[in-house]
Amino acid sequence: MSVAPAARIARAARPAARILLVNRAREVLLFRFTPGDDRAPFWCTPGGALDPGESYAAAARRELFEEAGIRADPGLEVAQRHVDFLTIERIEVTADERWFRVDVDAGDIDPAGHTELERRVMTQWRWFRRDEIADWPEPIYPDDLLTMLEATDHDA
């Protein structure tokens, strides 16, 4: 008797812009996500999916304003990666993430542009010193955030 292979779940393609937002003290902004289901809270950088017809740079600019209240040019891409994950909305995706580094003087964040979903799940944010990241008690994404920051420091 043969057993059919398990059906593979088709993952949705998710082009996304992500931002390494760094202040003058070299701290990086992270948002705490609380999915509200069986998943533990986690922290990640600002950013999100592209709107239809939107470029990665335009999405980075929009996300930076919507999530942090900061108007800034995201500059050039500093990294690209493909990652599989389950979104807050419980959709299996393969993300084509394009990363941008934005350096800012001030550390004030304005969440006025958050969507209803973001207001529900992005309840906290803070600027992280680099020495806090490795031993933080909750997951921080991307896993290699420190490496990405160090790799882009010379461009700042």
UniProtKB/TrEMBL annotation:
The keyword Kinase does not apply. Its EC number is 3.6.1.61. Keywords: Hydrolase, Magnesium. Gene3D superfamilies: Nucleoside Triphosphate Pyrophosphohydrolase. Its cofactor is Mg(2+). The gene is ndx1. PANTHER family: GDP-MANNOSE MANNOSYL HYDROLASE. It comes from the Bacteria. CDD domains: NUDIX_Hydrolase. This is Diadenosine hexaphosphate hydrolase. Belongs to the Nudix hydrolase family. It holds the Pfam family NUDIX. GO terms for molecular function: hydrolase activity. Residues 12-152 form the Nudix hydrolase domain.
